[in-house]
Amino acid sequence: MLEPTFKCNLTCKGCGRIRENRDVGGRMLSVKECLDSSDEAGAPVVCLTGGEPLLHPQIDQIINGLIERKRFIFLATNGIKLIQFLPRIKPNPYLTIAVHLDGMASTHDRIVELKGTFDNAIEAVKVAKAEGFHVRTNTTIYKGTDPQEILELFELLRSLKIEGMMVTPGYSYEAVNSDIFLSREETNRFFEPIYASRKRFPFYNTPFYLEFLAGKRKLNCVPWSTPARNPKGWKSPCYLLTDSYCKTFKEVMEKTEWEHYGPKKDSRCSNCMVHVGYEADALNQIKKIKDLITMAGWVLLG
Known about the structure:
Elements: H1 17-20, H2 31-41, E1 45-48, H3 59-68, E2 72-77, H4 82-85, E3 95-100, H5 105-112, H6 117-130, E4 134-141, H7 147-159, E5 164-169, H8 184-196, H9 207-213, E6 229-230, E7 233-237, E8 242-246, H10 249-255, H11 275-278, H12 281-284, H13 289-301
Parallel strand pairs: 1-2, 2-3, 3-4, 4-5
Antiparallel strand pairs: 6-7, 7-8
Helix pairs in contact: 2-3, 7-8, 8-9
């Protein structure tokens, strides 16, 4: 997870990133810092997030530098600046644009606190698709959302022929003073109809993670699987929790006391079921031929 900037043009109700990092101000990672971080970690996939990464004035140079390194890139964006930005880059097999949509228009606009954002994002998806870009979507679920509305959203996105959609419950950031986050039990109930409809939609969540959300499979959090770099340094222990910052990738991997974190070890992890911690354990779940076939089918046909 690479956050070149914490700047954002939205004030989403459930986002702790901007609230946690007000002290950073306008400080950004340089192009060199971003590319050096990618070299340092060696991860094959880089998610450019933030904040809103399109507010970084050199984000196109960061993207092109990562492509030169043959990194698979997920450019996470709220879509507001996307149409204006597209002429600065070209479609590439290594690049996926991931547009954030948390519900249909009224719900999404309420969560991001800016009317018209949903319509703007949908139009940006259409334009990006028409210009040949790989487009996927990210959907975060909060308390009070109707599962049927999310299924309606997924039907709309499927009709736009996007390459895939991801869904995850929101993380209860300490910096967010609001009762909008789901408990584990509420998450399980919410995702039952989503799981039942899983074959209708091109999810890029693994099938095992969807089972986990619906309460049908146990997964363990693997916090080191998604290291995060931002203008403050390398986060420890994970993308969602910040107990310290490290100067190097090696330091965060070797000095973080991983055994202290997890649902039964740290109260902040109690209700966390976010993909960044749990998707990696899906690979560890391939212990039976049936599971191997399920995962192979997801990779080849999903």
